[in-house]
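R.M. (postdoc): so does anyone remember the format we settled on? I'll just put the structure tokens first.
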């Protein structure tokens, strides 16, 4: 197998598995940026999406000021193209992690982009929940925590679905971040493949990204179907 790679994909073989530019390192950095930024941005996005539903007109915690503020902040970060967000938040990333480049610095714009995208997805999902279910919970004397639990429990299959969409989008954004110094598969594809006319490197990097996305989609679809059939 290694002989075939060395013969037909010499530049891929030359990069190796480990080391700063190795394939193993690139895959690790892509997964690291994806998972950590989703844990941060996804958690914030879930909370903001839930608050957007609760504070909307007619919501359980109706509050026009809070709703307007959350809605506008989410819309602003949702509207900024990610490549611009990378540059815009670079000084802020430097203040937080002490550097404006690298995977840790990329976590800042990635988390902001994830928060805005996921918050909107969560808002749409929770808004589609039958209002009668919430009214029945309120009529039975449910506490605020109980109502939040109803929202999340009843919408769980759709929340998993939008989580899958968000993670796939995030993988694409990590590739973009990698192309501007954050490392990962994106950096390999551009710096070691495209810029050096090493087409075998670009081909394999693209294949790896596609495989990661297919795995995320498969797991998301599996969990959605399993929970929906309970």
């Amino acid at each position: 197998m290694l002989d075939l790679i060395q013969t037909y994909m010499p530049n891929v073989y030359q990069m190796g598995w480990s080391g700063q530019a190795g394939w193993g390192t690139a895959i690790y950095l892509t997964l690291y940026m994806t998972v950590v930024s989703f844990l941060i941005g996804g958690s914030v996005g879930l909370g903001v999406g839930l608050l957007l539903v609760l504070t909307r007109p007619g919501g359980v915690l109706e509050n026009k000021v809070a709703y307007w503020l959350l809605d506008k902040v989410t819309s602003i970060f949702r509207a900024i193209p990610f490549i611009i967000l990378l540059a815009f938040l670079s000084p802020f990333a430097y203040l937080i992690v002490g550097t404006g480049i690298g995977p840790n610095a990329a976590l800042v714009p990635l988390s902001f982009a994830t928060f805005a995208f996921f918050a909107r997805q969560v808002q749409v999902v929770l808004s589609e929940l039958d209002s009668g279910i919430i009214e029945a919970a309120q009529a039975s004397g449910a506490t605020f925590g109980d109502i939040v639990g109803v929202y999340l429990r009843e919408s769980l299959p759709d929340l998993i679905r939008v989580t899958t969409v968000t993670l796939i989008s995030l993988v694409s954004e990590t590739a973009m971040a990698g192309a501007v110094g954050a490392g990962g598969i994106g950096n390999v594809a551009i710096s070691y493949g495209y810029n050096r006319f090493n087409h075998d490197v670009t081909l394999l990097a693209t294949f790896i990204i596609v495989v990661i996305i297919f795995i995320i989609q498969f797991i998301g679809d599996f969990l959605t179907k399993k929970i929906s059939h309970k």
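R.M.: ...and that's the designed sequence above, right after the tokens. Also worth knowing: The mean pLDDT is 89. Residues 24-228 form a domain with the MetI-like fold fold (CATH 1.10.3720.10).
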